Amino acid sequence: MYIDSHCHINFPELAARMPEVLAKMADNKVTHALCVSVDLPDFPQVLALAHQYPHIYASVGVHPDYEDTPEPSVEQLVQLADDPKILAIGETGLDYYRLEGDLEWQRERFRTHIKASRITRKPLIIHTRSASEDTIRIMREEGAGTDAGGVAGVMHCFTESLEVAQAAIEMGFYISFSGIVTFKSAKELQAVALALPLERILIETDSPYLAPVPYRGKMNEPGYVAHVAEYIAQLKGVPVEEVAAQTSANFRKLFSVPA
Prior knowledge:
Blueprint: E1 2-7, H1 12-15, H2 18-27, E2 30-35, H3 43-52, E3 56-60, H4 74-80, E4 86-95, H5 104-120, E5 124-129, H6 132-141, E6 153-155, H7 162-170, E7 174-177, H8 187-195, E8 201-203, H9 225-236, H10 240-255
Parallel strand pairs: 1-2, 2-3, 3-4, 4-5, 5-6, 6-7, 7-8
Helix pairs in contact: 4-5, 5-6, 9-10
């Protein structure tokens, strides 16, 4: 049994096929999925899906790539997170790959989310790309980790170095691997996945993006998270059932979801 720890099934290309998407989840033994918020205008759709389907959960947050969107306040995030189907704050973080110029607004937005996480005691979903040094620095400065009184969370769709992963783990964070880890070109990322203990790993699709091999280049969906688990099992030389059981247990522990 698998859990997709990060997807965007509220996006139009998946929402239009919801019965098929949910059926494929069941066929592939994907028992739950976390539908992750990227901005406030679309948050009601994310929450509605979580309330409509018992096995779908939600988060609330504003993605660092969304520049022209309403800016969240700490108070607003805290209020919106006050729902039992909201498991996390985010996704949030820093992305210096897609945007250039003065990105102080990204850093301030990230700090806002960390403050909301500390108040709500709900974990963070962190996106970082070409910004790992500032990401880790701000996490430490704002006390995001369990070592500093925060509730930690997950570094989602991880593509950074082993050193970055270890720094996050020291703060109590989990590391989530997407379909990227199955790509032939992802040798460095595969080495990171091999080095990390299963006890700190989550799996995700980030659908509708980044479909794993053998579906690379096609639309991704939660049912395909099984292929991420299968690849990690092959990489580590362990049964896929072990990867499925441990990553699901990790998800439940991090997000306080009972078995």
